[in-house]
Specification:
The protein is of the alpha/beta class. Helices cover 35% and strands 15% of the residues. The strands form five sheets. It has a seven-stranded mixed sheet with strand order 6-5-4-7-8-10-9, sandwiched between helices. Strands 1-2-3 form a three-stranded antiparallel sheet. Helix 10 links the parallel strand 7 and strand 8. The structure holds zinc ion.
């Protein structure tokens, strides 16, 4: 909820011409309204008024104070978030319109059949209907409600009120009186009579309601863009608790000529969303606060429709992605943060956990569609559906993480419960839910022996839906680059996110050349029981520091993993990251082979360090000295590596010695596949084709404190 500083008027520096608020909006135009002058900025297809004296572009030299003032009215850095949100909501909207239209068609066909049957019966038999067979008032109201469910004649201007009698997804959970609520707005032709089915059978006039709530709207830019750029949207509410903000929203709505589509509401977002509990909810709710969205989540769940989409931003990375205030992380998100490199991915999973556990209380299950860590904030798009059966899977999809944060950086995960699929006699399948075994990991890291720490609980299912990302990419493909200046970055980030799930495998919806085929509007549902066994990435340079060795190139490390049959991709969260389904024993085995084959240690590691303990677990060199039963230390490894024939420095060693080495494969904790650092195999052909990561556009760039 933004508080808005009073607009700075700067009439003294009056430009040559001032337009009134009724003028056609244009970029750079100066608007004079109520004695104040504003500059018009265009973003996407919407225009936003910024009072004179407030900077309107990203200037690296801007002072902190200037930036803060600017952020209240227009924050250019958040354009990526807004561009992405427009595309995501548009994609979701296509799905929603298709579903509602199909439902409407089914109802229409059924109503027509009934009408025809009734007509035929009346004509053929001419039997008088006995009085008790006439519909009673109660039946009538029920039928009316059913009609209103599906029939919204004519253009809809305030969708969330039009079908107020519709059974809300939460109604049966809360035992609300939604079912008995009088029908406030039955379909009417305007002359007082309820329309006959024939009158309603005009598909051209019918448009499904598609309602959006911008719950923390500030100056309303998101709402303006959704109204302009998402043609399927029928009604958008822009809410802010500050009346100055809603005044500013109304002014912008008027300027953009969107009064018929956007309603401004002054109120506390939480109270407003709870107030929708017994009324029609929203199809999309966007939470874009300064700081954390955690306090708004439960209320948003109350106000979202069944099969609706929540869009949630959190900018408090000091809480969700840092261990400095772990007690605060727990109270906000219901889980403990992850330390070190994958902390932002941990933050995404904590936020999903917070949403899933809130929703679960009301029999609502979540399906993450897209979850991104962007610069200093996180943004998730989540489909929410009423499904008590899917909610039962949640404990088995929620995990804790044992993280060796002070030693080698490896981690292992444990799910809180088990979901076991079983086949029923009638051929359907269901799940049996049971307790998980007590701690699955030792207190000490199995690799380096250091103490591990506990993180989570957090969401352990897949964090994206492949079909959704493919459809957003298709939307992007049709978008104009001039309207979406963040086009390249959106494309790069979406492709990277997609590969986190597919590992680059071509799906059935992709042709041989990697071109996405024509996609239907319906977003396929992900497997609700799926879990992510390898949720976090690692960074080759970071694990190389543990062994104090020169780091392998990304291509070499990826090539070695692929050569051994593991899948490899990168994480959108961090440049230089590797996301793989290889277990940590395989990763350390490869790195030990890197040391043996390519990067012999120059100095022995200090006794008792994480690297020293890991090296001692590798058998690679002990095989040459079977007489010595004691485990080798890194001192031995330095000496042996000097004699290793596969070390390019030792090319003059005899062939006999080389054969001797090949006889027994080096192993690490029982893992002994042959390791080849095949850089060609490790390279992706489209690498460099997309803007996958972006550097910060200005100095000291980061989250701003909440506007005063
Ligand atoms: Zn460790």
């Amino acid at each position: 909820m933004a508080t808005v500083t009073p607009p700075v008027s700067d009439i003294s520096a009056k430009p040559s011409s001032l337009d009134s608020i009724d003028a056609i909006p244009q970029e750079g135009q100066t608007i004079n309204h109520d004695g104040k002058a504003y500059t018009t900025i265009r973003e996407g297809q919407a225009y936003i008024l910024v009072p004179h004296g407030i900077p309107t572009s990203t200037d690296p030299k801007s002072s902190k104070e200037e930036v803060e003032r600017q952020q209240v009215f227009y924050n250019p850095i958040q354009q990526f978030n807004r561009d992405l949100s427009v595309l995501a909501i548009k994609t979701y909207g296509n799905d929603l319109v298709q579903r509602k239209t199909e439902k409407h068609e089914r109802y229409r066909a059924k109503a027509q059949r009934l009408a025809e049957r009734k007509k035929a019966k009346t004509v053929e038999t001419k039997v008088e209907v006995p009085p008790e067979a006439h519909p009673q008032p109660d039946d009538l109201s029920l039928k009316k409600r059913k009609l209103s469910d599906h029939m919204i004649p004519g253009p809809v201007t305030s969708g969330q009120d039009t079908d107020a009698g519709k059974k809300r997804c939460l109604a049966d959970v809360h035992d609300s009186n939604a079912e008995t609520e009088p029908l406030r707005n039955p379909p009417s032709t305007g002359n007082g009579h309820t329309p006959r089915v024939e009158e309603l059978q005009k598909p051209a006039e019918w448009k499904p309601a598609f309602t959006i709530l911008d719950a923390l709207s500030a100056t309303g830019l998101r709402a303006l863009r959704y109204a302009q750029e998402i043609p399927a949207s029928t009604s958008i509410t822009a809410n802010d608790m500050s009346s100055k903000a809603t005044d500013s929203i109304r002014l912008n709505v008027k300027h953009n000529k969107l009064e018929s589509k956007i309603q401004a509401n002054t109120g506390n977002a939480i109270a407003y969303m709870y107030s929708r509990i017994e009324k029609q909810g929203y199809d999309v709710i966007d939470l874009d606060p300064y700081g954390t969205a955690a306090p708004f989540i439960d209320a948003a769940i109350q106000a979202i429709n069944d099969e609706g989409m929540l869009c949630v931003t959190c900018t408090d990375s000091a809480i969700f992605a840092s261990h400095g205030y772990l007690e605060k992380t727990y109270s906000q998100y219901g889980g403990l943060p992850l330390k070190g490199e994958p902390c932002h991915e941990g933050g995404l999973r904590l936020l999903l956990h917070a949403i899933a556990s809130s929703a679960g209380r009301y029999g609502m299950a979540i399906e993450p569609l897209l979850s991104l860590s962007i610069d200093y904030y996180i943004r998730v798009f989540v489909r929410v559906r009423k499904s008590p059966n899917e909610v039962k899977l949640l404990a088995g999809k929620t995990m804790i993480v044992y993280h060796c944060d002070s030693g080698c950086g490896s981690w292992s995960t444990q799910f809180l419960a088990r979901n076991k699929a079983k086949q029923n006699r009638d051929g359907t399948s269901s799940y049996k839910h049971s307790f998980a075994a007590a701690p699955s990991a030792d207190q000490h890291c199995e690799h380096c022996g250091f103490k591990t720490h506990l993180s989570g609980p957090m969401y352990g299912g897949p964090i994206h839906n492949v079909g959704f990302i493919q459809r957003v990419l298709a939307q992007l493909n049709e978008a104009e680059r001039s309207v979406y200046p963040t086009y390249n970055r959106i494309e790069g980030m979406l492709r990277t996110a997609l590969e986190e799930i597919t590992y680059g495998a071509k799906s059935a919806e992709t042709t041989e050349d990697g071109v996405t085929k024509q996609l239907g509007p319906i977003i396929p549902k992900s497997d609700p029981a799926a879990i992510d066994d390898w949720p976090f990435f690692f960074i080759p340079s970071a694990i190389s520091r543990v062994l104090h060795c020169q780091a392998p190139s990304l291509a070499a490390m990826r090539g070695a993993l692929r050569h051994a049959g593991f899948r490899v991709t990168m994480s959108h969260c961090k440049p230089g990251s590797i996301r793989t389904d290889a277990p940590w024993t395989a990763i350390w085995h490869i790195l030990l082979e890197w040391v043996r084959q390519r990067a012999p240690l120059k100095n022995a590691l200090k006794k008792g360090t994480a690297g020293d303990v890991i090296l001692a677990k590798g058998s690679s060199f002990a095989v040459q000295d079977n007489a010595n039963p004691n485990p080798v230390s890194s001192t031995d490894i330095v000496n042996i590596a000097k004699e290793d024939p596969s070390n390019p420095d030792n090319a003059d060693l005899s062939a006999a010695e080389t054969n001797q080495t090949k006889k027994t494969l080096p192993s690490y904790l029982g893992t002994n596949f042959p390791v080849e650092f095949d850089e060609n195999l490790g390279r992706d052909h489209d690498r460099g084709k997309y803007v996958r990561y972006q550097l910060a556009p200005r100095e000291n760039w980061g989250p701003m404190s909440r506007a005063k």
